[in-house]
Amino acid sequence: MKKIAALLTMVTICTASLAFGAELRPTQVLMQARAGWMKAMSENVGANKLADVAKDAKELAAQTEKVAGKLEGERKDLTLKVAGLAKTTAEAAEKKDAAAVKAKLGEIKGTCATCHDKYRKS
Ligand code: HEC
Questions:
Q1: Is 75 touching ligand 1 by the criterion CB < 6 Å?
Q2: Which of 25, 30, 52, 113 has fewest C-beta within 10 Å?
Q3: Cα–Cα distance for residue pair 65/54, rounded to 1 Å
């Protein structure tokens, strides 16, 4: 019985370390952060938490602006477009203009999708 328990423990530990060991590519880490900010902003604009929206929009703008610096061509243009829209989103949120925030979030999503349609393989 003890041996079985020990074996099960080993199997559990190995499985867990495999799961955590599966590393994300750097692009995936950046993209998942973007998805997180987008989700939070959609929820927060719905809950009228516009100060939180402004904060996330600024983070998205800063990250995409930084990433764009390392890109070329259309990828750079689309990433800069996200950065510009995110800045406008932050400004709209600071003016407590929820309708403008929603419109800008829609434009950002469209820009993410344009790039994914063209450049995302999976
Ligand atoms: C310049 C093009 C480009 C833009 C702009 C872009 N993405 Fe991506 N995105 C990609 C590519 C390429 C991948 C695939 C990355 C990989 O698998 O390594 C990807 C993958 C993803 C993924 C999957 C990550 C994973 O864990 O596999 C998410 C989520 C994502 N993007 C969200 C977003 C969001 C949200 C935005 C807009 C705010 C955005 N992306 C803007 C190109 C872009």
A1: yes
A2: 25
A3: 16
The answer to whether 59 and 35 have CB atoms below 8 angstroms apart is: no
- Which residues touch 42 (CB under 8 Å, ≥6 apart)? 105
Is ligand 1 within 6 A of the CB of residue 70? Answer: no
Per-residue pLDDT of the chain (122 residues; tens, 9 = 90+): 567 666 666 555 545 544 555 799 999 999 999 999 999 999 999 999 999 999 999 999 999 999 999 999 999 999 999 999 999 999 999 999 999 999 999 999 999 999 999 999 86
82 in contact with ligand 1, CB cutoff 6 A: yes
